[in-house]
Amino acid sequence: MSTAPAPSSRDLRHPASEDIRLEAVLHALSDPMRLQIVRELAVGRDELTCSQFALPVTKSTSTHHFRVLREAGVIRQCYRGTAKMNGLRRQELDDLFPGLLDALLAAADRQAVRLGEG
Questions:
Q1: Is 115 part of any domain?
Q2: What is the model's pLDDT at position 1?
Q3: Among candidates 8, 21, 40, which has minimal Cα distance to 100?
Q4: Could you tell me if residue 32 is inside a domain?
Q5: What pTM, to 2 d.p., does this model score?
Q6: Residue 29 is part of which domain span?
Q7: What is the CATH number of the domain that holds 25?
Q8: Domains identified in the chain, total number
Q9: Please, which residues have CB within 8 angstroms of residue 63's CB and are 6 or more apart in sequence?
């Protein structure tokens, strides 16, 4: 009888593309902090560490926001050394929900300008 190795605390669970649900994505993006994270990831081409985001929340709250985004399938997280890297799952989201991410990001940009935040 063989046993699979126990998952490491550094193994992060991500939904498979076919398991990403629209309502989970919309819920994840409905929070202003999570939307800010996605906006920052959408601008860059590279992955960013959690510490590169200037969020006005505690570390535990920040960790919660990243977990919600990851579990909804919006971002992919992995460890590189001691850093937890974050990347937007843009291609997968675009394949599943064509135009959704672009429309949400454009709307968020317009709102930021309208409210004097962008």
A1: no
A2: 46
A3: 21
A4: yes
A5: 0.86
A6: 17-109
A7: 1.10.10.10
A8: 1
A9: 50
